[in-house]
């Protein structure tokens, strides 16, 4: 794993790590990573984790909601169109 991937995995698992819900092997890896990685030490201090990461998740969620509503509108329109056409 390269450094960036390690940090992503670390931050992903950090909440579980705090709650002691990761496997021993993972926990050991994370303890080691936290010791050696300045970036994750800083991100770990505020329990919010990495703010950029949260922003990304919100963006992804927004896109998902948007896609779903567009899809529903399209579906309704299609149904309406076929009813109108058959009438
Ligand atoms: Zn790191």
UniProtKB/TrEMBL annotation:
It comes from Halalkalibacter okhensis. This is Zinc-finger domain-containing protein. The chain crosses the membrane at residues 65-86. It comes from the Bacteria. Keywords: Membrane, Transmembrane, Transmembrane helix.
């Amino acid at each position: 794993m390269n450094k960036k991937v390690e940090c992503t995995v670390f931050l992903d698992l950090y909440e579980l790590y705090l709650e002691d819900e990761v496997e021993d092997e993972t926990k050991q890896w994370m303890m080691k990573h936290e010791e050696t990685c300045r970036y994750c030490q800083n991100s770990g201090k505020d329990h919010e984790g990495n703010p950029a990461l949260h922003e990304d998740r919100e963006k992804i969620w927004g896109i998902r909601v948007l896609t779903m509503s567009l899809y529903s509108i399209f579906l309704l329109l299609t149904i309406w169109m076929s009813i109108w056409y058959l009438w």
